[in-house]
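Crash report, auto-generated. Payload:
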Amino acid sequence: MYRYDEFDARLVRERVAQFRGQVARRLSGELSEEEFKPLRLMNGVYLQLHAYMLRVAVPYGTLSSRQLRKLAHIAAVYDKNYGHFTTRQNIQFNWPQLRDIPDILGELSEVEMHAIQTSGNCIRNVTADPFAGAAADEIEDPRPICELIRQWSTFHPEFTFLPRKFKIAVTGAPHDRAAIKVHDIGLRMHRNAAGAPGFEVVVGGGQGRTPMIGKTIRRWLARDEILAYLEAIMRVYNLHGRRDNKYKARVKILVHEIGAAQFAAQVEREYENSAGQARKALPDAAEIQRIARYFAPPIGGAEADGEGAKKLRAARGTDGDFDLWCRASLAAHKIPGHAIVTVSLKPAGGIPGDATAEQMRSVAGLAERFSHGEVRVSHEQNLVLPWVRAAEVHELWRGLRDSGLAAANAGLAGDIICCPGLDYCTLATARSIPVARQLSLQLGGAKRQRDIGGLSINISGCINACGHHHVGNIGILGLEKKGREFYQITLGGSADENAAIGDIVGPGFAAEEVGDAVDLVVGTYLKIRRAGETFIDTYRRVGTQPFKEALYAA
Amino acid sequence: MSGWIVSANDLAAGTVVYCTAGGWSGDIGDAAVAADRDAAKKLLAASQPAVRDNRVVGPYLVEVELCRGGPSPLRLREQLRHRGPSVAQAKG
Amino acid sequence: MLLRGVSVAHEDSWRAVDDGEDLPAGKVTVTLRRFLAEREQLAARAGEVGVHIDPGEDLALAAGHAAAISTAALVSVIFPAFTDGRGFSVIRSLRRRGYRGEIRAIGKLLPDQFDFLRRCGADSVEIADGDDVQTWLREARALSLAYQSGYAQTTARNILEARAQANRATLRATAITTPAKT
Ligand code: SF4
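Recovered output after restart:
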């Protein structure tokens, strides 16, 4: 993983000192709340329903054991002993005191972490495939580019006061695990006709009140042109994005209003005008190599004899629970004899994405023993151990089980993606966590979920869609009607390379009806699915009609 | 019977506080209750010095019902603010 | 008050003149519309002429008249609100098209934006009367480093250059201290 050099470290320390001064000025009254609010927001500090909330950046979802231990420490010392991993691969603390936040940031800086640009109308933390660097289907590890983008976007002099927030996602693999088509900019690596790796550039995707799938504005862009090209996109957006209406200010609206072709033409013109100057401004090859070296796989070669794989097969053959967990949790690795392990943060009846300080420490310890001290955060709000030897998967599983972290539901119905909702969030219109909790209990155990097959359920507590409900196979949006919570259901959403926005299936449901409604949807699918189909396959074949009939028959 | 109370967040700690006869309290039972809209406006005005003194952030009126145990917010949002998340962190 | 570089500028003889208002002697700034419409009259005057660019109204016009704007002695870029960051790109674009005269940021701005303005290419900033100059001057130096290349050099040092320099120093040091192996 990337390690700060003296300059990265100094910049973060200076930022902590600056924020410490701002907090002191606020507490002494030198700054009013009105003046302080934009300053605290630039550093990830919100005032939520019950308390302040601090959002800490996990750049492109990569964490070291040391960093995870620090997060556990912060949860235990400054918070109520837990943290919440978000759909943006970040972590949020729900109860820090404002007076403590400078110290928290100081502690984070010791492990090369910060809260810079985790909110505000700036370029936010760049997200990536959580399997980056390890996935079997990957062309190249996208994280060196992500780190380049992280540095370039940090305190950008031109693009820190944009019309709205701006999110960039990157994948180096054909199977999209980073939801790049629903980001302001999505970068998808692929090879051109000559076999050179570069990026397809997708712009104007997003969720919220006006969900849209991004449009491709460049089929292929060489890697070393990325920053200059991003600069051109950002300049067009910064100058022409709407500022008259906050709900129309995201780049997706600009792309939609002027059309993708026109937007692309403006970007290309800006890029051409400046290409000479801008390319010169890129870090040179030595710097790119310097960054890339940090991301070399920490494991040596493949295991030639296949002993590890044999051992894993044997354990799966004799231990049914382990086998069920493996089926959900293991992904194919680039290096034979290894596995990518997803650690589900979705125990039945739990709070999706929450982890206690003890659990964070357990995962940190297990990552040290089994994954070269490296952990990832996925946008599904799970953790991932990317470098596990096949021979050691069984032992790892035992360790996870002891910490209550062995839910065998990754990628299945119980792997519910869920925002904090009205239990924490001041913008919410309804609660989302109790719905997730109830569904996870009623969906049944690992065997039943295995039978249902791959199914994503996403829940948001308001139209802002932090729970990504638009791209859930089953999406649930909490709203308020006459002082009561009610929930709108969408079907057919998807966040991968075949990204789609879910269709609203009909009138919403009262809180106590949601469970039955989801049961009916799942039941209908099980009745009409063909052999080998997942939920989304069936939905794409039959459309909403059969589900509508089941839901609104009576 | 219904009425209004004033709630805000403590500036330094961020915790939920309620305006009382003489200051601020984390306990809703201590909250000063205004019986009608005029009294509510006055109560809100009376909470402003605490904003200027950098003691609390964003005071606003909360509609409550008066029960035996004290004021109880009518809206779910305010009930959650008062009682804390409805989904206690079970794993901790 | 006017800040030039990272200090207080004690003289400022520019006068903003509204459309339709008579032009006084000396240095004046006019709206972009007037600047383009009255080019000959303005050029015939003795005093220098500057132009205001309001991103809310002038973007299309400014893009079409880059050459004319490049003759102005001063370009004042208006920030209608500190959250409206269009001015940063306006300033940056002026510099990239080769504008050499003075660029001034005016309007609603925060001390935290001072260094950003300078890095985009502004020479001077007009701050509000009630603002604390010391805060502005301090915030300009809050961060001593910057990642972006190709922007103007200010008190913030470019990290990529700092890195390259540090690498060269390390190389020299190793060259001296490492005994040559044969
Ligand atoms: S979707 Fe709405 S309720 Fe959920 S976290 Fe986002 S803003 Fe809050």
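Post-recovery validation: The pocket of iron/sulfur cluster is lined by residues A 419-421, 425, 427-428, 460-462, 464-467 (CB under 6 Å).
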